[in-house]
């Protein structure tokens, strides 16, 4: 069994881990919810810094870990900058993310939920 896997996902939540890392909760259509460490993401010159922000859609290469997986590579596919510029849109997006966190399952495909959430983020941004 391979120790790395690829996934496309939307970042739903981040939290600090140690001095320079982040734990990112990601919704993927293939694997459902994933919690993974983004090493060095809190450093100013980190390549994972911007890619680990809220509502960023990334193509990820993730290494399996004992307790938490680790993001080894990330390529941004889409961002929603309009959400960050408007407090109302940001609050609505975060509310949707909390609903998704309550509904999504780990280690099970969540294609419909992923597409629905992505579509609603797009609709919020163009409002």
Explain this structure to me?
The protein has helices spanning 81-85, 87-103, 111-126; strands spanning 4-17, 21-28, 32-38, 57-63, 69-78. It has 127 residues and is α+β, with helices and mostly antiparallel strands. The protein has a single domain (4-126), classed as OB fold (Dihydrolipoamide Acetyltransferase, E2P), CATH 2.40.50.140. A 5-stranded mixed β-barrel has the order 1-2-3-5-4. β4 and β5 (69-78) form a beta hairpin. The longest helix has 17 residues, at 87-103.
Annotation keywords:
127 residues, alpha+beta, OB fold (Dihydrolipoamide Acetyltransferase, E2P), five-stranded mixed barrel, 5 strands, globular, ARFGAP/RecO, DNA repair protein RecO
Concise summary:
This is DNA repair protein RecO. Residues 1-80 form the DNA replication/recombination mediator RecO N-terminal domain. With 127 residues, this protein is of the alpha+beta class.
Strand order of the largest sheet: 1-2-3-5-4
CATH topology type:
OB fold (Dihydrolipoamide Acetyltransferase, E2P)
CATH architecture classification name: Beta Barrel
Low-confidence stretches: none
CATH superfamily: Nucleic acid-binding proteins
The CATH class, by name, is Mainly Beta
Number of separate structural domains: 1
Number of E strands: 5
Derived structural class? alpha+beta
N to C succession of SSEs:
EEEEEHHH
What portion of the residues fall into strands of 2 or more residues?
A: 35-45%
Report helical residue fraction.
Answer: 25-40%
- So what's the overall shape? globular
Largest sheet: 5 strands, mixed, barrel
Alpha-carbon Rg, integer: 14 Å
- First and last CA, distance: 45 Å
Domain DNA replication/recombination mediator RecO N-terminal: 1-80
Pfam family, one: RecO_C
Keywords: DNA damage, DNA recombination, DNA repair
Protein name: DNA repair protein RecO
